[in-house]
TrEMBL record, chain B:
Classification lineage: Bacteria, Pseudomonadati, Pseudomonadota, Gammaproteobacteria, Pseudomonadales
TM regions (residue ranges): 7-28, 34-55, 76-99, 119-137
Compartments where found: Cell membrane
Keyword Protein biosynthesis attributed: no
Protein name stated in the entry: Na+/H+ antiporter subunit B
From TrEMBL, chain C:
Top-level lineage group: Bacteria
Membrane topology (UniProt): Multi-pass membrane protein
Keywords for this protein: Cell membrane, Membrane, Transmembrane, Transmembrane helix
Family, per entry: Belongs to the CPA3 antiporters (TC 2.A.63) subunit D family.
Protein name in the entry: Na+/H+ antiporter subunit D
GO molecular function: NADH dehydrogenase (ubiquinone) activity
Primary location group: membrane
UniProt xrefs under Pfam families: Proton_antipo_M
Transmembrane segments: 6-23, 30-48, 68-95, 107-126, 132-150, 162-184, 204-226, 238-257, 269-296, 308-332, 338-356, 368-393, 405-423, 454-473
Chain ranges of the NADH:quinone oxidoreductase/Mrp antiporter transmembrane domain: 128-417
Organism for this UniProt entry: Marinobacter flavimaris
GO CC terms, sorted: plasma membrane
From TrEMBL, chain E:
NADH:quinone oxidoreductase/Mrp antiporter transmembrane domain ranges (all copies): 125-409
Species this chain originates from: Marinobacter adhaerens (strain DSM 23420 / HP15)
Residue ranges constituting the NADH-Ubiquinone oxidoreductase (complex I) chain 5 N-terminal domain according to the UniProt record: 62-109
Topology term for the membrane: Multi-pass membrane protein
Ranges for domain MrpA C-terminal/MbhE: 680-760
Molecular function terms, GO-annotated: antiporter activity
NCBIfam families (alphabetical): PRK12647.1
Protein's cellular compartments: Cell membrane; Membrane
GO biological process, one term: monoatomic ion transport
Stretches that traverse the bilayer: 27-50, 71-96, 108-137, 158-183, 203-227, 239-257, 269-290, 297-315, 321-345, 366-385, 405-427, 448-472, 492-515, 563-583, 598-617, 624-642, 648-667, 687-708, 741-759
One Pfam family it belongs to: MbhD
GO cellular component, one term: plasma membrane
Protein name: Monovalent cation/H+ antiporter subunit A
Keyword annotations of the record: Antiport, Cell membrane, Ion transport, Membrane, Transmembrane, Transmembrane helix, Transport
UniProtKB/TrEMBL annotation, chain G:
InterPro entries: CPA3_antiporter_subunitC (IPR050601), NUOK/Mnh_C1-like (IPR039428)
One cellular-component annotation, GO: plasma membrane
Family in the record: Belongs to the CPA3 antiporters (TC 2.A.63) subunit C family.
Cellular compartment(s): Cell membrane
EC number: 1.-.-.-
Species of the source: Marinobacter adhaerens (strain DSM 23420 / HP15)
Record-given protein name: NADH:ubiquinone/quinone oxidoreductase, chain 4L
Broad enzyme group: oxidoreductase
């Protein structure tokens, strides 16, 4: 089931990449995706229920884009102005995400957002350590991060 | 210091198939667009390098199943094999031969010694780079 | 379609790839080593006979028309070089069965050997200047790997110099190809030659030709570009040294012969005079270098340099007789020098050292080995009626004929000093008593039997036989050299063969 | 019309690049530089590619641009994470204005264990608060 | 038949090991059959040759080179052939006994047979090159013979000396012969001799003559090359006997005689011969007189004889040539005998020095008798052939067209000395008080005496009835040396004439000298020791030392082990040559027209420059690596910007992987430290700037030149139509120029194998048990 | 319009390259240099994109894709160097 | 632009040679990298620079539109890049092994084998 998901994804990606939408090409993509996954089969953890995620994904993307622009501007402002407004620090952020894939996505998205950078996950995978640039209002930041995580998890679960 | 992170591991597993797939893509369309066996092979190798950085040399060996050396040998033999059909047809070595295999539906699948050769290049590049990286990493571990 | 022109490249390439594929089966690799080099020799002989019959053999790779495709071309010189490659390859392959340490066999000795031969053969046959670069690199990488195989300290130190200086040479070669292409827009050597013939003011061509000269001069180990050779040739295991000694520098010499007869003949008075002095100084510095050495292989290594001078002299004088002499010298030297290294390997096996002070007594205990040393050694020194005599004779005669008296005198003096070196080895290794401090003389006295003993001697005897044949039955060899020189002096024939659509 | 959009996208992308570049030069320590550079750099690249897709308005080009964006989104944070992490753990000096460090106190440099701080008491054998530096 | 005659020695040499196993200690007798047969064969040629015929035998060898196994038998060749095979017969027999039980006897005979064959080949060759082949073969085989006792360092040294001098001379001779070939256009002695070409008018003549003379002088131990010959005594006595009497040293004389009729008539040729011959004669005689080792005495007397022969050729009158032939034969006979006898003395008494022997005639009567006769011949006393020869010599010296008085003085002085020498050789050991010798002396076995006996007997016969040799070969021999037909009449007794009076005077003075020898000897010894510091032998040693010193100095300077210096030289040579050539053949022209570039292209260029400079100057290794990465990006941008997307991609990928490899490897290596001195850095920087500037100038020059359009239009036109690909670069790589790519993947594979074995196969692992 | 924009973008990208390179030279830590290198890769991507538009050759996009898929490996390599105890201040 | 690049290439040669002349083996390797870049750029520049016309036949077309850049030097450089990379990989590992075996990174201390 999971294999099939990835496989199809890869096949579609293939078609998209090659830019020629034919049955043959899809089949070829499927085959190559299959080969790619075959190499990986022992390592890929379980994934399921992907079909419901597309609308959530779109919603998430919109949210993410907004965050992205917002925080980018904030960083830009600080960089561009002579005085530092920032108040950086490393915080421990307790995670709702559980599987490897979830944690990876959460941390990646956090990293992608300017102003926050995932440094590491605790050994028990319950806490993500984040370097944040603007710790003026730490609670607000934690709330934002929690919302982000929540939206990601909704897409992934 | 502390090594091996969950994030890198997971990301490697996610990124690697994309790289591999893209490498095959580059290989196959190299005749018409930028790409080809060499570039494809390099991208494929980067996929495995990523894996090796995340999981270590030993796991990469297991993932590859065959020794990088054998991939290399296969690549070289493919490269040489592409020269042979020309002999049968009595032409000079390395003369390209093209076969059009009709496919169900419309279109033809273009097979050629050139493709065989490009696959050889791809495998040789992959095998070579994996030999470099794995043996160097193993010597450190 | 001439398969014999392709096979000398294809056979070692395939053997190399197969040996790599059979990495774990040493036995299979050993069998393949002998079979493939034997086939290479057979292909070489086939090539030789076809070339003699047809004058030139040309194959356009990929069936594309000539200046656009890479062509393989064989003239008599090329065919000679291929036959020699086959001979040396086979000799080394057999010798390796006995001499190669297990560890080396397990780590790719045989595939590297095959690919080295492939690179050498490719360089001899290609008619394309960039393709020549590629084969040079194949050869070079194989030699790098063989040189470092084993990982001894001396190998590493030697290899750093070898690698660096050769890479510099490659970079110059590559740049020169680029500059040449910028001017003539083609890579096929015949095409370049033909086009340059019609150039009015070839000053820049001469400039670029000097880059080729330097680059090939480095590969050929000419003065003052030879440093990499004495720094490294004595460091790998002996079969590798022997293989290098026989073939590698000669590829550089061959390349000089090729381009400075075919392409760069615009300003012979200038370019070939430079070559002439390089040749003289190469002879002299090489032989003096050898005089200062007291290690078997180091002496031999410096003599490679010195002998390269004679071969360059043949080219530099640029008369028909001189080219005959040069070609003859190449044939003679490849066989003789390889053989000497092989003999040094046997004495090493017997006494465990290459240092003259640790060697001795071989004449007493192994008279036939002593004879097997004397044949190539005296031949190298130019003692008649061995091959080296005729080689030197022709070259000296050519230089006297060209009124280059100083050069002739140097050539003769170097001959004497070469004899001095060979006699030094003879006196120290063979005549002298085993020094008292050498305790492990068991093998010398024949106590230890090696099951592959024959593999040490078969190639040495075979090569000695070649030396004797060239000397005693030299007429066919001379005729070959004469034909080769004749073709070299008439580049128009080559150009017509490649571009003029001769029957294939 | 599309020219204007393309221009805007390109200029926006380039602006992000410049922002990242200025940030990387100006900002005082590694993590803060990374806030500017990796994200803004990626952002700039994404916007540029969007411009490319729009400019060519060709499905194949668009598909490749999308693929590029996906790839960048996957790889950029990983690179950032790995470098930031490596920099942090090798002890690069943080800006003097750094206010807190909740990681340092939970990291045991001897055993290389990184605690979440949420473990039950028994999980945590030796408290190592005293091992951290000034923070 | 002639070919077989010459080569049979080599063939038999090859068979010696097998024969030795069969024949055992009789090997000497068995092998002697061959030279005996050869002697018979050569004797059978006498009638034809003495009839004035020159036998020419032609065999192909390397016609392309003008080398053939052509043989010529005229009087001169035949006399030599007879001496070589005849004396050789006895030497072989003698050696079997002398070296009986020697562990290397088999090897000895192998070399000896080869030597004999080489010598025969030398004197019989008609082809100049073949002649030279045999000439060099005698050098090398005599080397093996001189160094026969090879575990003795002294023997090795002496052998090397002999070889070095003769082979060195041989090489000069080669040049001379080649010049002679140029002059005459012929490779054949017989043709050269028969032609009436004015050789000395040719521009090459002087060079050729000098070269040939040097070659002959080294071989025949003429002053100043005489020093090697006495040292050749390190060889076993049979070898010395053979070398001195009939072979090796006579080769030079043979050559002079052979070419005389063509070269004669020129002052350079004959005056050199006379001068050096006389000097050698005198020097040899003096040194013989002042030595004590019996073999050394004999050796120097050989030098004297060789000088005499050379001088006689130089005089060149008919008389002189007759004298030449007689001295030649006489010397061969008595010297062969005396050496074998000296060996017998040594063999039976264990003593080598004449001061250590005395009164041996009682225990070795037969040896004494034969020695006495041979010594008479040496002294030039009747009724032996030596007397006939000496009389002729005096006569021709007196009648010499040039320097008669000088030559005569030398001849008489030598003659006096040689009388004393003969006394030393014969009287010292056999008479006077009996001295104890290391071995109990008794007469030598028959195998060791038969040779001396026969040779002395021949000397006696020839002396008593000198018309016998005259009838058979003398005329023909003299004719071949002199050039025109000559009829001679020899007689023991010519009546009382000037030569006879000179002989008598010499005998008298010589006897006096002999008597005072004991008293003179310490002084002579001191003089010789002092002189030896300046003599030619000292020169030889200085030369050898000089070679070694120059060699090691040169090697220290050039091959100094410092990679930086090597590279520096390479760079200087490369760019010096190209730069100079550019300057002279094309000219420099700087071009600063950058107007056709866009500002961002300058930006890329600037990035490349900055990255390069930073990578070179930074003291941070990884900073340098990262900067090289940036350089790679910059180059990739250039590729991309100038229409090479494939190159751009490849460059980026390779750059990334390079950085990864460097990083993988580097952390085991230490950080940068500045190791060079500022001076070295400035030096290197200037060289590097010179190189870079030259490259720029080259590029600028080439940019202006495009002789022809690129062949690429073919690829562009046919990429799709014929090769079915739209990416033309890729089509070139995998189709038009596929062979390059095939080679390229093998390069990759080789790098992989190299890296793999370097990482995995470690020297330290191999040394583990 | 687009032409002007493209030129401005080229200028901005050139500036970005310059700044990033300054950081690369300054360090002070290896991680800083690596970050700079990553940024340069991104700028190159931007450059490639603009160039594709400038020349109208969409094939250049592949360069960008390859960079996106592989350039980050260098960073991972450097990080590995640091993790394995390499000198950080280089 | 070729003119400017000629100067850049000259600088690359200068830098590479200077680095190769240093005594540190790491600098030697960096010199080698720069050298291969220099040679590749040289070919590229000397063959002539063309803006914005890669030698590709557009989608749907069967021949190139207008003048395109010379594809041959590109193919050559591609080969050269790969070869240089192979060589470099070997050289990098070589210097590491040399350092391990010899125990120094100073090239001047690696002269035992010569004389
Ligand atoms: Na600010
Ligand atoms: Na040009």
């Amino acid at each position: 089931m999971i294999g099939l998901f990835w496989n199809l994804l890869l096949a579609i990606a293939w078609v998209v990449l090659s830019g020629s939408v034919t049955a043959m090409n899809l089949l070829a993509g499927f085959c190559f995706g299959y080969i790619a996954l075959m190499v990986l089969q022992n390592q890929v953890p379980a994934l399921k229920g992907y079909s419901r995620r597309i609308p959530r994904l779109i919603a998430f993307l919109a949210f993410f884009l907004k965050e992205l622009v917002k925080s980018n501007l904030r960083v830009a402002y600080d960089v561009a102005t002579p005085v530092w407004h920032m108040k950086p620090g490393v915080i421990a952020f307790p995670l709702q995400a559980r599987t490897d894939m979830e944690i990876m996505f959460v941390s990646s998205v956090i990293s992608l957002t300017p102003g926050t950078l995932s440094l590491d996950v605790s050994d028990d995978r319950r806490v993500l350590f984040i370097h944040a640039m603007f710790l003026q209002d730490e609670e607000q930041l934690r709330n934002d991060l929690r919302e982000l995580e929540h939206r990601i998890l909704k897409v992934m679960r | 210091m502390k090594t091996n992170t969950l994030i890198l591991h997971t990301a490697a597993l996610a990124i690697m198939p994309l790289q591999l797939m893209f490498s095959v893509f580059l290989l196959l369309r190299g005749h018409d667009e930028p790409g080809g066996g060499f570039i494809g092979g390099l991208v494929a190798a980067s996929a495995f390098v990523l894996y090796a950085f995340a999981f270590g040399a030993e796991s990469t060996r297991k993932l590859l199943r065959v020794s990088p050396r054998d991939i290399l040998a296969a690549g070289l033999l493919f490269g040489l094999a592409s020269t042979i059909p020309a002999f049968w047809t009595g032409q000079a070595m390395l003369t390209a031969l093209w076969w059009e295999v009709p496919l169900p539906g419309e279109g033809y699948l273009k097979l050629s010694t050139v493709l065989i050769f490009d696959i050889g290049v791809y495998l040789a590049v992959l095998g070579t780079l994996m030999t470099f990286v794995i043996s160097l990493m193993e010597s450190d571990e | 379609m001439n398969p014999e022109l392709v096979l000398p490249i294809l056979i070692p390439l395939t053997a190399g790839a197969l040996s790599l594929a059979f990495w774990r089966s040493i036995t299979l690799q050993r069998v393949l080593a002998v079979v493939a080099t034997g086939l290479l020799l057979a292909a070489g002989i086939w090539l030789m006979s076809s070339t003699i019959e047809q004058g030139f053999l040309v194959v356009e790779m990929g069936s594309w028309p000539a200046p656009f495709s890479i062509v393989l071309v064989s003239d008599v010189l090329g065919a000679i070089m291929i036959v020699l490659t086959g001979i040396i390859g086979l000799a080394i392959a057999i010798y390796s069965l006995a001499s190669t340490p297990k560890g080396h066999e397990k780590f790719g000795y045989y595939p590297l050997m095959h690919l080295l031969l492939a690179g050498v053969a490719g360089a001899f046959l290609t008619g394309d200047i960039f393709n020549l670069f590629v084969w040079f690199e194949v050869m070079l990488l194989a030699s790098f790997a063989l040189l470092t195989l084993g990982g001894e300290r001396a190998q590493m130190e030697g290899a750093i110099k070898y690698v660096t200086l050769n890479l510099f040479s490659s970079a110059i070669f590559l740049s020169a190809v680029g500059l040449l292409y910028g001017m003539v827009g083609t890579l096929n050597m015949a095409d370049i030659a033909q086009k340059l013939n019609s150039v009015e003011d070839p000053g820049m061509v001469t400039v670029v030709s000097l880059m080729f000269m330097v680059s090939f001069g480095i590969k050929a180990a000419a003065f003052p570009l030879f440093f990499w050779l004495p720094a490294s040739y004595h460091t790998p295991q002996v079969a590798v040294s022997a293989l290098f000694a026989g073939l590698l520098t000669k590829v550089g010499v061959y390349a000089l012969y090729r381009v400075f007869t075919l392409i760069f003949t615009q300003d012979v008075a200038y370019t070939h005079t430079i070559l002439l002095w390089a040749a003289a100084l190469t002879m002299l510095t090489g032989v003096l270098g050898a005089a200062a050495q007291f290690e078997f292989r180091r002496i031999l290594s410096f003599h490679i340099v010195s002998q390269i001078g004679y071969m360059l002299l043949g080219l530099a004088l640029f008369t028909p007789l001189a080219l005959i002499g040069g070609v003859f010298y190449i044939m003679h030297h490849i066989i003789v020098k390889t053989n000497l290294f092989l003999v040094s390997g046997i004495t090493y096996r017997l006494l465990g050292s290459y240092e003259l002070k640790n060697l001795g007594g071989v004449y007493r205990q192994r008279p036939y080995l002593a004879l097997l040393f004397l044949i190539p050694a005296l031949s190298l020194a130019g003692i008649p009626p061995l091959s080296g005599f005729f080689a030197k004779f022709i070259v000296v005669k050519a230089s006297l004929e060209a009124s280059e008296y100083v050069i002739s005198a140097i050539a003769l003096l170097v001959g004497l000093l070469t004899l001095y070196s060979m006699i030094k080895i003879w006196a120290e290794v063979f005549w002298k008593k085993v020094p008292d401090h050498v305790t492990d003389v068991g093998r010398l006295n024949g106590e230890i039997k090696n099951t592959h003993n024959w593999a040490y001697y078969v190639p040495v005897v075979g090569l000695a036989a070649c030396t004797l044949i060239i000397g005693l039955y030299g007429q066919p060899i001379y005729v070959l050299a004469e034909t080769a020189a004749d073709q070299l002096m008439n580049p128009q024939l080559y150009i017509e063969a490649v571009l003029g659509g001769t029957p294939k | 019309m599309s020219e204007i959009f393309v221009s805007i996208l390109l200029l926006a992308g380039a602006s992000f690049m410049v922002l990242a570049a200025i940030g990387i030069v100006r900002l005082p320590d590694l993590p803060t530089r990374m806030h500017a550079s990796t994200k803004a750099g990626a952002m700039g690249a994404i916007l540029t590619m969007a411009g490319v897709a729009l400019h060519f308005s060709d499905s194949a080009v668009a598909a490749r641009a999308i693929a590029f964006i996906v790839f960048i989104l996957l790889t950029a944070p990983i690179a950032a994470h790995v470098i930031g992490r490596a920099g942090y753990f090798t002890g690069i000096s943080l800006w003097s204005g750094t206010t807190k460090d909740e990681l340092r106190e939970r990291y045991d440099p001897d055993t290389h264990k990184l605690y979440s701080g949420l473990e039950t008491k028994t999980d945590r054998a030796v408290p190592d608060n005293n091992k951290d530096g000034s923070g | 038949m002639m070919l077989l005659a010459v080569l049979s020695g080599f063939l038999l040499a090859v068979a010696v090991p097998a024969l030795y196993r069969v024949a055992g200690k009789h090997i000497g007798w068995v092998l002697a059959l061959l030279p005996a047969l050869l002697t018979a064969y050569f004797v059978s040629l006498i009638p034809a040759v003495s009839g004035g015929e020159t036998l020419l035998i032609r065999n192909q060898w390397m016609p392309g080179l003008g080398v053939s196994l052509d043989f010529m038998v005229d009087g001169l060749a035949l006399v030599f052939a007879l001496l070589i095979s005849g004396i050789g017969t006895f030497i072989l027999i003698y050696a079997g006994s002398y070296l009986q039980g020697h562990k290397d006897l088999g090897r000895f005979y192998v070399i000896m047979m080869s030597f004999m064959a080489s010598m025969l080949g030398l004197v019989l060759s008609d082809n100049l090159i073949t002649f030279f082949v045999f000439w060099e073969l005698t050098s090398i085989t005599s080397y093996m013979l001189i160094g026969f006792n090879h575990e003795d360092a002294e023997a090795r040294k002496c052998a090397l000396q002999g070889l070095f001098v003769t082979a060195g001379g041989g090489l000069v001779l080669m040049a001379g012969l080649i010049l002679l070939i140029f002059i005459t256009g012929s490779y054949s002695f017989s043709e050269i001799l028969a032609s009436d070409l004015a050789i000395h008018d040719h521009g090459y003549y002087t060079a050729a003559a000098v070269c040939i003379l040097i070659g002959a002088f080294t071989k025949s131990a003429q002053v100043p090359f005489h020093f090697w010959l006495p040292n050749a005594m390190a060889a076993p006595t049979p070898v010395s006997a053979y070398l001195h009497s009939a072979t090796m040293v006579k080769a030079g004389v043979y050559l002079l005689a052979r070419l005389n009729s063509s070269m004669d008539g020129d002052a350079l040729w004959s005056n050199s011969l006379m001068f050096f011959g006389a000097a050698t004669m005198l020097t040899g005689a003096y040194l013989a007189f002042s030595s004590t080792g019996i073999k050394k005495v004999l050796a120097y007397s050989t030098v004297m004889a060789l000088g005499t022969l050379t001088m006689l050729i130089g005089i060149g009158t008919e008389k002189a040539i007759i004298a030449f032939v007689c001295v030649l034969v006489a010397h061969s006979l008595y010297k062969g005998a005396l050496f074998m006898l000296a060996g017998a003395l040594d063999h039976e008494t264990g003593a080598k020095d004449i001061t250590k022997m005395g009164g041996l005639w009682r225990s070795m009567p037969r040896t004494a008798v034969i020695t006495g006769l041979a010594a008479l011949s040496l002294a030039g006393l009747p009724p032996l052939f030596g007397f006939v020869a000496k009389e002729l010599m005096f006569e021709s010296v007196i009648n010499s067209p040039v320097w008669p008085w000088g030559l005569l003085t030398a001849a008489v002085a030598s003659s006096i000395l040689v009388v004393a020498v003969a006394g030393l050789v014969f009287l010292k050991p056999f008479f006077g008080p009996v001295r104890t010798t290391p071995k109990q002396p008794h007469d030598a076995p028959v195998a060791m005496l038969i040779g001396p006996a026969v040779l002395t007997l021949l000397a006696l016969i020839f002396g008593v009835v000198p018309f016998v040799p005259a009838i058979f070969v003398l005329d023909a021999t003299v004719s071949s040396v002199y050039g025109t037909g000559v009829t001679t009449a020899l007689a023991l007794w010519h009546g009382v004439n000037v030569p006879l009076m000179l002989s008598g005077a010499s005998l008298l003075a010589g006897s006096l000298l002999f008597i005072t020898w004991q008293r003179l000897h310490p002084t002579l010894y001191a003089v010789n020791t002092a002189a030896s510091r300046f003599g030619p032998e000292a020169g030889y040693f200085r030369f050898m030392l000089g070679i070694t010193q120059v060699a090691s100095w040169q090697t220290r300077v050039l091959q100094n082990g410092v990679l930086g210096i090597y590279l520096l030289i390479l760079v200087l040579v490369t760019f010096g040559l190209t730069g100079y050539t550019l300057f002279t053949r094309h000219g420099f022209q700087l071009d600063f027209d950058f107007s056709n570039g866009y500002f961002y292209e300058f930006g890329i260029a600037l990035l490349i420059v900055a990255a390069t400079v930073f990578a070179s100057v930074t003291r941070s290794r990884l900073g340098s690596v990262a900067s090289v990465g940036v350089l790679g990006f910059g180059v990739a941008l250039i590729f991309i910007h100038f229409s090479a997307p494939d190159l751009g991609i490849t460059q980026l990928l390779v750059e990334t992987l390079t950085v990864i490899l460097l990083v993988l490897v580097l952390f085991k290596l230490p950080p940068f430290v500045n190791l060079s001195s500022p001076w070295e850095r400035y030096r290197d920087l200037s060289v590097a700037i010179f190189a870079g500037a030259t490259m720029t100038l080259l590029m600028l020059a080439v940019l202006d030149i495009q002789y022809f359009d690129s062949i690429s239009s073919y690829y562009i036109e046919n990429s799709y139509g014929l090769a079915f690909g739209k990416n033309i670069v890729n089509v070139i790589l995998v189709d038009f120029r596929q062979l390059d790519t095939l080679g390229e993947i093998f390069v990759l594979g080789l790098a992989a194998m190299g890296v793999y074995s370097m990482v995995k196969l470690r020297a330290e692992d191999q040394h583990k048990p | 319009m687009l032409g002007i924009a493209i030129n401005i973008v080229y200028l901005m990208l050139s500036l970005a390259l310059l700044f990033a390179f300054i950081r690369l030279t300054r360090g002070p830590s290896l991680a800083d240099r690596v970050v700079a290198l990553e940024l340069i890769a991104s700028v190159v991507v931007g450059y490639v994109g603009v160039h594709a538009i400038d020349t109208g050759v969409s094939s250049f996009l592949d360069v960008a894709i390859v960079i996106s898929l592989t350039a980050f490996l260098a960073a991972i390599g450097f990080a590995r160097f640091l993790e394995r105890g390499g000198v950080k201040d280089e | 632009m070729e003119t400017l690049m000629a100067y850049v290439v000259g600088l690359l040669f200068t830098a590479s040679i200077y680095m190769m002349l240093r005594r540190s083996i790491v600098k030697l390797v960096i010199g080698l990298i720069i050298l291969s870049n220099a040679a590749n750029l040289l070919i590229f520049v000397v063959a002539g620079l063309t803006r914005g016309a890669p030698p590709l036949i557009p989608e749907g077309a069967s021949e190139v539109v207008g003048a395109v850049a010379d594809p041959l030097p590109q193919a050559l450089i591609l080969t050269a890049i790969v070869i240089a990379f192979s060589v470099l990989a070997f050289a990098v590992v070589l210097i590491r092994r040399a350092y391990e075996v010899v125990g120094t990174d100073d090239l001047d201390k690696m002269k035992d084998t010569d004389t």
